[in-house]
Amino acid sequence: MHVEIVRVCLVVLTAIINHPLIFPKENGTVPENTEEIIQKMKEREEILRLEQLRLEQEIAEQEAIQKALEKSAESIEETKEEKVPWDMWTALSMVIFLLIELWRQDFQEGIWQDTGGEEDDMAVLGKALKGVAFPDKAALGSFYEKRILGTTGDMARMREMVEGFADDLLEALRSVCNRDADMEVEDCMGVGSMYENWRVHKPFVCDLIVPFAPPEPYSFRSQMWCSGDSFLPGYEQGYGTIKVCRADEDVTGCICDKTKLGEDMLCLLHSQANTTRASSEMEDLLCFKNTQYLDANQVMKWFQIAVTKAWSRISHKYEFDLCFSLLDSPGALKIKFRSGKSIAFNLTPVVQYENSDVYFISHFPRSSLTADLPSSTQWFLIFAVYERRFIQLVSKTLPHNACHLSCLQILSFLHSKQCSLTGPSGLTNYHLKTVMLHLLQTSPTKNWAPEKLEARLQDMLAFLEKCLHEKKLYHFFIGNGKIPAELSFPIIFQKAEPLNLFRPFVLHRDVYRKTVDTFHEMLRNMTALINEYMVHIPLVQINGIRKETL
Q1: CATH code, domain carrying 236
Q2: Which range, of 188-192, 237-241, 367-371, 451-455, averages the lowest pLDDT?
Q3: Residue 466: what pLDDT?
Q4: Which of 74, 354, 370, 441 is most buried (most C-beta within 10 Å)?
Q5: Does position 468 have pLDDT exceeding 70, yes or no?
Q6: Rounded distance, CA 550 to CA 36, Å?
Q7: Domain that holds residue 482
Q8: Domain Mab-21-like HhH/H2TH-like, which positions (predicted)?
Q9: Rounded to whole angstroms, how far apart are CA atoms 262 and 258?
Q10: How many separate domains does the chain show?
């Protein structure tokens, strides 16, 4: 142990003694090429410094790349995590929305088709009817006999007179038309409230429609919004177009008028002569410019000119004058007697839909609720003949002196008088008539006995208020699959989507608000209005409004 300690001490002592810094001059030697060694060490140091910088730069670049990759991976992961729940919630929301929409449509269609099966339900449909004082049966009966029933005889005499004159006028019209070039006019038909025996408004106006057809060899081909061949844009529900076709023209349509065949190609179905004459022929056939579609404006101009010529031929036979009465209704005519009295009636040309009693009407009064049509080639469809037949068919199954028309007449009278007090509303007589048609179909026949007039009037008011609240009153024929088979009604309209007559109320909120207010005001004033026109009070004040009687 001691020997080892001694050896270590000797080694340390030797190292201290031989260290060049302690004894540099005596025991150390300095190399002769010191400057060269220093230069090499500096160069080596510079090389190591550059290498260090290069390595540091590469490490920094790799770290940046690594951080970018990590950041990108994190963002992708976050996107996936966010996208999965978003897509899931979007899909789930769409499914729920579609289910609710399908349920709502089925529920509402079921209501309008099945409403009235239970009479007790009608009493709670209209909230506004609660607290309204209805006239009793005696008052309603007396009012109906004094103010409405007496007009039936006047309507019958006026219908007879107008129909006789219209037949004579149309016969003269046929004589002044060119049978080879002009349209062929058929006999007129009476439609509307005057011929359904429920019109109450004076002056009475007869509505006559006149079917017409093109001369040979042409024919009409109709295209409707609910048919599969309605390829033209802008179709509205309840409207269609009428195409004028030659008898030898392919019904499916030839491509020669839609594509350019080239100078060296000819159509085997249509000759060159027919092609050159097509434009002028279509204009002569009252079509829209450069098309084969019948133009309602051109038809009305032709009809007015033809009626004027026909009247000039037979005017010497009558002791009155005939003129067109309304500028916005081209078919409105007025007979003026020398005594100053006058009779108004509408004579409107129509086109028959195939072999049915549905007609395209050239001019139909359009309210402010209805948007303007994009083209005069779109014609409105009317079902007036079937409506009259349905009322006649159902009337055969109702009790004697049934009150269905009485209810409609009273409601039409009350609404008209309320509008004369507070201004016009969006409701029309056709809306009121549609309400009656729905209730005729759904209510038991025994409920229309004459002694139940008050109850059925309340049903109509409650049904109408419900429709106003929901902004839904469906057309009676379009989309109604329960039309009696005896009417032979075209199946294409029964399978069509139901047409909501109150759809414009959704877009015109101001008119809707005015209509609802007028309806509620009519309910509040109903008893006063009936008493006013029943006891012949010369001047009456209703809710602060003074109005003279008729």
Answers
A1: 3.30.460.90
A2: 367-371
A3: 94
A4: 441
A5: yes
A6: 135
A7: 122-248+280-535
A8: 406-479
A9: 12
A10: 1
